[in-house]
């Protein structure tokens, strides 16, 4: 699980259902998201929002995705562009890449693949954004896969690292067991929900959170990280 706090994505598509689907999914992953329904509003949004990644539909009325891409790149915006199109034609891909597009996906596509491509673009163009994040006494270094608490590096298993990363990035929010299982263990996890309790107990021990003031149990709802 990457640290994506503060990473801005611009979604441009003239199909409201696609925009809504992508926006909900990417916001739930922790990204800051802005949407635009056409090319003109996309240019305005890019100027105001300064996205790190722009996901552009090619086939739009008026100013199409190719022209938006060309305009963004010509203006010198430090944005990585992923083109989306219903066409799977080599000529379209070549055209987009020549105009400065950084990646290309054909519809229909899986959300997981798009997410992977977004992370690939961020690693390539904005690697510093995925390396360190600071939340109160926590410092999360994704490159080294280390979490420090009060300047002490915690000895964590891979799953403990993923769980604590997810909870710290979402501090102040009550996270249900079902949501934690989905985000940390994966939607296809077939085990028992009680495994979350086991890992929470282990994290509390390693954080010396004996009074459960850092990782709080919200009865009947889940868990919440409260930063001092």
Automatic annotation (TrEMBL):
Q: Known InterPro entries for this protein?
A: CheY-like_superfamily (IPR011006), OmpR/PhoB-type_DNA-bd (IPR001867), Sig_transdc_resp-reg_receiver (IPR001789), WalR-like (IPR039420), WH-like_DNA-bd_sf (IPR036388)
Q: Which UniProt keywords apply?
A: DNA-binding, Phosphoprotein, Transcription, Transcription regulation, Two-component regulatory system
Has the keyword Disulfide bond been applied to this entry?
no
**One short Pfam family name for this protein?**
Trans_reg_C
Please list the residue ranges the record marks as binding DNA.
Answer: 130-227
List residues, modification 4-aspartylphosphate: 57
Stored SMART domains? REC, Trans_reg_C
| Sequence intervals crossing the membrane | none
Which residues does the UniProt record annotate as the domain OmpR/PhoB-type? 130-227
Response regulatory domain ranges (all copies): 8-122
Which PROSITE patterns does its entry note? OMPR_PHOB (PS51755), RESPONSE_REGULATORY (PS50110)
Task: Please state what the protein is called.
Answer: Response regulator transcription factor
